Amino acid sequence: MSDFEHTSTGVLALVLMGLIFGGSIVIWIKNRPLWLKGQSLHLMPLDLRFLDFSIIVWAVVMIYSLLLLLLPGWLNITEADFEGGISAPVMIFQITLQLSVFATLVAFRTFAKSTYHDIFGPYSGGWSHSIKLAVLRLVQFWPVIWLGNAASYWLFDLFGIDADLQQAIELIYAIESPYVFFAAIASAALVAPFVEELLFRGVIYRYLKRKMVITHAIVLSSIIFSLLHLHPLSFFAIFLLGIILALVYEEAQDIRAPIIMHLLHNTFTVILIAFDKLQ
After folding, report:
1. How many structural domains compose the chain?
2. DSSP conformation letters of 43-93
3. Could you tell me the residue range of the domain that residue 188 belongs to?
4. What is the DSSP letter of 179?
5. Separation in Å, CA 30 to CA 26, 135, 144, 191
6. Does residue 74 lie within any of the structural domains?
7. Cα 184 from chain centre
8. CA torsion, ordered 218, 221, 52, 69, to nearest 10 deg
9. pLDDT tens digit string along 228-263?
10. Looking at the whole model, is its pTM more than 0.90?
């Protein structure tokens, strides 16, 4: 890459960041969320018995774990393939694991509909409302998440703790094939947000809301969400993201809003990685 292209890419990334931060300030001034005033927290909890909730979570974990063990052999993937970055088989492996969670939830909703008919949550807001709210809240809160992540990096550095990038991000940085790179974007920015929101907000958060005070349900579901990303350095930022996604779900009364917001958040992160790779 030429010096001009290198500089242009850096300037474009800075402009994009500046627009996000500027937009966030404007939205904070003109459009504060209703839930900051204690309103719009009336999402119906998930009406499942503890046994029914435990069964569906157990099934998700068992099927995911089984595929985690079997897929490398079926796809002829070795440990060296994972360490060497994302290849086509590794990409298939990751997307299959993600889709297994969705397939499990769909199976329960289809074959045990009387019990699990509501696991995907309400769809009361409509697409236009969900998209508008997702974009608005992402621009508003992305700087908060970014600052949380920056604070984590600073603290780890202050105490001399070594911390690598999140594995998914490291693998994206290692990609050389443009086709595999676009597949990785599809996995990180499309499949993962869709599946994670159905599970963590649609099932886990709404079930916890039925069992405890709403603030406790939001915090506990966000802790679980962050812990399962298995990356200490990103824990606080992902925890903040989980809280915001739950509150957006409450505000929208529609599972599509947190899905879209999560999708846009991951897409924006991948775009920044792409800018960094170009430099």
Report:
1. 1
2. PPPP---HHHHHHHHHHHHHHHHHHHHHHHHHTT--HHHHHT---HHHHHH
3. 3-45+116-278
4. H
5. 6, 15, 17, 33
6. no
7. 14
8. 170
9. 988 788 889 999 999 999 999 998 889 999 999 999
10. no
